[in-house]
Amino acid sequence: MLGLLLIPYLDREEEDVGIWFSGRRGRRVAAVSAVFATLVGVGLLAFTVKYGWLREWLPDLTQRYSRISQIVIMFFNPGMMYVGVCAGWSIILVRLTNSTRMGSIGLFTCFLVFFVILTYFATVHRGPNWDFFWSHADWPVVEH
Amino acid sequence: MEYSAMRQLLRNTKGLFRNFRESMIRHGRPTTDRARTQTVVQNFFLHVHSARVNKHSLKWTTTVGMGIMTTALFLILVVTGILLMLYYKPSVLTAYDSMKDIHFVVPTGRIMRNVHRWAAHGMVALVILHMARVFYTSAYKPPREFNWVMGIMLLVITFALSFTGYLLPWDQLAFWAITIGSSIAGSPQDLTDALGITQYFNPGGFIKEGLLGAHFVGEEALIRFYTLHVIILPIVLSAILGLHFWRIRKDGGLARPASADPPAPDDAAIENFDLMAVIYERTPATDQEVENTVPSWPRVFRLEIILTLAVLFVLVGLSLCFDAPLAEQANPDVPENPAKAPWYFLGCQELVSDWAFGGGWSSLGLSCWACF
């Protein structure tokens, strides 16, 4: 939210106000960013569902050096990976287009796409014990 | 003399409706631009609009009407919320029963509750889309920066309103969604636990207890959520919403491309003066030539009424087809599996559940990076 609040004070380019995506170049940037974010978002989710993450890979580490490993697990996570990739993407866009506006369009689009993907994924594909299911019909049935 | 007084009384009686209307509205049917302007300026409710708007603002593609539709949803929520308040009893013992009464016993209670529920979800979705529209059209650029800030505040308050209302039915769905939501709010404690400093510095616990009034969702949480939902947050939202609208006017109307304001002739600065004819020049507030504008009455108001009716039509349709969910009464001993937060926090839940507190940091980091 703080990031959102600061947008107008950090992006001071005044061209193309009132024009959707600031013109044709912005539309292209938004479209490519949406595809990019979809691939990264879905890819990371698929990876974590199939292979897990640090906690599953290094169970010994979490037991031996509990405090350090907890901090590592907290900060080195798929969400952070996503932020890193998107930040890199944004920097590439700024360098390629020489425009902070294009960089911010790319990143805002990634943010929205990621929000939609995560919301959809948690709504449809998460079931009992927060496990992955293709649909609600696959949920285990407990008979009393 | 007596006869004349009687005739006068008769005439007054016949003109009762017209006199009443004129005392209230102060002008006749607006047939000229001047009268249309007076219609807006002299009316308390219409005065929030500028007297004239740029032609570009009326194009469908400028805003897709999302601001108007969001406001319409808020008004619908206020009306249906007040009606629901007449029957709702905010207590752990009675809340669920009163919800069932509203749903099954109170005349039109069911549709009121359905409309309220779908309008709440719609408002959250539309506020997000409205924010995206403002971002993608660069409508946050000077002089509209502060209005963007107020818009973000409205977004947060809308989330808070929806979140606090989520608990009120006091069913399993609500209870466990709020339990999850408050755990997400308290997730900074994961970090302080890992660092071993929770006993000295515990912002997560402070936020969670401040929200719930206890360590768990119970009577204290219900009262807090109810007070926030029906009094504090609507008042704050209304105040900021008023300021948001006022700033739209004072910042020169909706953001528009330079092509929507073709250059004025050299003497335009002399001819163009402020509405009140006090400032004898182009006004900084509007900074637009009258040639590019049209009176707000009736175009803007017609659009507003059409969009409001469309929103209401969709809501009533949805409410007739789909009931707002009402699960079994909340039972703290029987957790829902899976327990899911309200849909707009499900992304956060996905991040936090699998990826711990870092997920929250990721969201924050991503938002910050969006600035650049």
The number of strands of chain B is 2
Number of domains of chain A: 1
Q: How many domains make up the coordinates of chain B? A: 1
Q: Using only CA atoms, what is the Rg of chain B?
A: 26 Å
Could you say what the CATH topology of chain B is called?
A: Cytochrome Bc1 Complex, Chain C
- Coarse structural class of chain A: mainly alpha
Which quaternary structure do these chains form? heterodimer
Largest sheet of chain B: 2 strands, antiparallel
Which range best describes the helical content of chain B: under 10%, 10-25%, 25-40%, 40-55%, 55-70% or over 70%? 55-70%
The separation of the N and C termini of chain A measures: 46 Å
* Average of the residue pLDDT scores of chain A: 83
Q: What proportion strand of chain B?
A: under 5%
Q: Work out the strand percent of chain A.
A: under 5%
Instruction: Give, in order, the helices and strands of chain B.
Output: HHHEHHHHHHHHHHEHH
- Report the radius of gyration of chain A as a whole number of Å: 19 Å
The shape of chain B, in one word, is globular
Would you kindly provide a written description of the structure presented here, covering whatever features stand out?
The complex is a heterodimer of chains A (144) and B (372). Chain A is mainly α and 144 residues long. Chain A has one domain (24-132). Chain A contains seven helices and no strands. In chain A, helix 2 (24-51) runs antiparallel to helix 6, helix 2 packs parallel to helix 7 and helix 6 (78-97) packs antiparallel against helix 7. The radius of gyration of chain A is 19 Å and the shape is globular. In chain A, 33% of the residues are buried. By secondary structure, chain B is an all-alpha fold. Chain B has a single domain (66-370), classed as Cytochrome Bc1 Complex, Chain C (Up-down Bundle), CATH 1.20.810. Chain B starts with a helix and ends with a helix. At the A-B interface, helix 1, helix 2, helix 5, helix 6 and helix 7 of A face helix 7, helix 8, helix 10 and helix 15 of B.
